[in-house]
Structures are given as structure tokens and as C-alpha cells.
Amino acid sequence: TKCHSEIARVKNLERIHIGKHDVDTWYFSPFPPEFANASIVYICEFCLYHFMSERQFRRHLTKCEVIHPPGNEIYRDTNPNVSFFEIDGARQKTYCRNLCLLSKLFLDHKTLYYDTDPFLFYIMCLRDAKGCHIIGYFSKEKDSTEGYNLACILTLPQYQRRGYGKLLISFSYELSKREGKIGAPEKPLSDLGLLSYRAYWTETLVEVLLEANQSNDEVSIEELSIRTSISVQDITTTLHYIGAIKTLKGQPVIMIPSSVLEAYYRNKEKNRSSIRPELLAEWKPPK
Ligand code: ACO
Ligand code: ZN
């Protein structure tokens, strides 16, 4: 009932400690009830186990030998030192459940699935001498009948607004390209999800359109979709949103408004890193 779901939504944990960071939580997450009494919950950044007492947590750190997520490293860049690990939700149930518990603290509208079997998890890490530190992740259904290429996405709050969300989104589309498929994130998107996707879609479409323009190549929306693996619907919505669908001699045409182009070039100056597709050349979709 409505009443029950509203009770369930009351935030139960105030803060978590993970890696070097203390982070305020945003939403309810179904941790065991006794955790609601702890003023701060300690999470091992490598195995994602959680602890109510600092003493237990410190003891765990002296024993825990995990230094990276429990799966294959399918992508490794050296500038920046970003790696992606691919984890099968059916094989690494504990890790994936712990990851879902952690991410639910920052995701409002998603139901938490205890059954992680149907999902793959792509964990993005920064590497240093200590190990691979989780920055964010996304989950993906192994078989999506709706054509989704991403179920849930999270950048841990301490790393947000630095371009990591864009790397995660871009990675999800690179996987779709390698699969020869068109993909889309599961709807509805959160406010932050929509802002980030819109930014990614706009940047990607402007880039392809500028390239096409240089070679006097006329591209249709279907062609844009094939080149980017972004769905026709997401492309259409984005082009309308940025005001790029104009009518010329009674025909609809794509024309990027100059304000959007200026924003695109300004954004380029941030020199943020991007996913290098060639580093994924050996990846094959898991069976
Ligand atoms: N305010 C305004 N614009 C924003 C914001 C914000 N708070 N966050 C992202 N954007 C837009 C900006 O255009 C930004 O580019 P800019 O920083 O150059 O201006 C662009 O999105 C990309 O931002 P990133 O730094 O790459 O994204 P970030 O690492 O912060 O991650 C994410 C985005 C994953 C959505 C993060 O906000 C998050 O984890 N939120 C909580 C969980 C969530 O809501 N996930 C999406 C749910 S929907 C789904 O899972 C399918
Ligand atoms: Zn651990």
C-alpha cells in the first residue's frame, strides 16, 4: 500500500565512511535494521562489506585482502588510471548485493532487486598503489527485451561533477557498439540522470554532426542512431530539446543552434578524459 511504501522511504542511515571519505546519504536503503542506530556506517571500499562499529571495521581492514572488484578487468587506461571490471550478478551475489545496498543510498526511484542474477555490473575504478578504488558503476540486464543498455548508474557523491558519469554513460554505449546494438537507459531517469544523459547525448550528436558537416555528408536520425548506438527516440528528444529541428522549404532539417555549438566548444576546453574504444577491442559480450 501507499502508506507502507512511504514508511519504507524514510532515510535510515545518515552517513557512510568509505575509502578516505565521509559521505552524507540521500535516501533509504534496506540495510539490516540494526544499522539505523549507527551514526556512521563503515564500508570496505574493496569488498563493500559494511560495519556498524569502527573497531570491527578496522579489524576487517587488517584482514581483507581484496584490492579490486571480483571480476575481469575489461578496460584499463593509463591516463587517467581508470579501469572497468565486469561482474556477473549470478556469480558474485554478495558483492553485487552489497553494491546495490550502497547505491540505493543515492538512488530514489529504483526498486532494489535482491535478485542480482539477471544483471552484469560494470565497476569503474581509479587505480593506485593500494588497489582499485570504486568511483561508480552501472548495471545492465543480460537480456533486455526493451533494448536497455543500462539499468542503474551511480557516481559516488564524493566523485560527482568531474566527468565520471559521462565516462560511465559513454562506456555503456561503447559496449552497445561492440554488440552491434542500439541501446537506451532504463526509464524513468532521475533528475541527475536526465541532466547527465542529456549532456552526453547533446555532446555526442554535435560531434557526429560536425564531422558529417566537414565531409558534406547528410545524416538522417536513423544514421545518427547507427553511428552512436543512441536510440532514435533519445536522439529525437534531444534534438528537439536543444532546438535543432528546423524547417527548411517545408522539410525538417537538423541545424545546431549557435548557442549549443558555443557551449560544446566551451565544454571541450575542460579537457575531460573520454573512453578510448580501442581499449575495448578485445571485449566480447559474455554469454
Ligand atoms: N547539476 C547540473 N548539471 C549536472 C549535475 C548537477 N548536479 N550533475 C550532472 N550534470 C550534467 C552537467 O551537464 C555535467 O557536465 P558538466 O559538469 O561539465 O557541467 C554532466 O551532467 C555530466 O556530469 P558528470 O560529472 O559526468 O556526472 P557525475 O559523475 O556527477 O554522475 C550521475 C552523474 C551518475 C547521474 C550522478 O549524479 C549520480 O550518481 N546521481 C545519483 C544516482 C542517480 O540519480 N543516477 C541516475 C538514475 S537514472 C538510471 O539509473 C537509469
Ligand atoms: Zn574488505
Shape: elongated
Beta-strand fraction estimate: 15-25%
Structural class comes to: alpha+beta
Major sheet, described briefly?
5 strands, antiparallel
Could you list the spans in which at least 5 consecutive residues all have pLDDT below 50? 1-7
Number of helices: 8
Q: Tell me how many strands there are.
A: 13
Report the helical percentage. Answer: 25-40%
- Our measurement of the CA-to-CA distance between the termini, rounded to an integer number of angstroms, reads 39 Å
Task: Give structural notes.
The chain is α+β, with helices and mostly antiparallel strands. 34% of the residues lie in helices and 22% in strands. It has helices spanning 2-8, 54-63, 93-104, 164-179, 191-214, 221-228, 232-241, 258-268; strands at residues 15-18, 21-24, 41-43, 50-51, 72-76, 82-88, 119-128, 131-141, 148-150, 153-155, 184-185, 245-248, 251-254. It has a five-stranded antiparallel beta sheet, sandwiched between helices. A four-stranded mixed beta sheet has the order 2-1-3-4. A two-stranded parallel ribbon has the order 9-11. α4 (164-179) packs across α5 and α5 (191-214) packs across α7. The longest helix is centred in the last third of the chain and has 24 residues, at 191-214. Bound molecules: acetyl coenzyme *A (ACO) and zinc ion. Acetyl coenzyme *A binds at residues 106-107, 150, 152-155, 160-166, 185-186, 189-190, 192-193, 195-196, 199, 267.
